[in-house]
Amino acid sequence: MKYLRYELSDQTLGPNGELYKEEWERQCNLYHKEFESISSRLPKLFLDEYRKKEFHDFMIESLYLTRRCLKSDYKYDLEIKLLDYCDEKIHHYLYLIDVNSLKGNFDFMMAGNFDWIYAEILSVDDHRLSLEVRLF
Description:
The protein is an alpha+beta fold.
């Protein structure tokens, strides 16, 4: 994460959280400014949903990675199915095409429900975006 760093998030929840909340808000504002600068590269339907609450507290129901065979190469696509925490009848599907890397530390024995806490969508270059998600 570039702006919404794990350690800063954890500090806001700690015993001296008030000391870090101002910095957290500053980082959130910086992130939103950068996100708006790349928002034209994202589908309108996605933006409409993402801007509501950035999928905060949605639960990941499934991750599905698909390999596509091209002439001399492989490409990977990722489908993420999200459930709205407030209404589990509402599903959102994110389709990420030509995924270059997928990194994760998934602890299925943790206390959370695989909740999407926050994310950053940033530009890698003129053709690629990155998506980083903090889960609980």
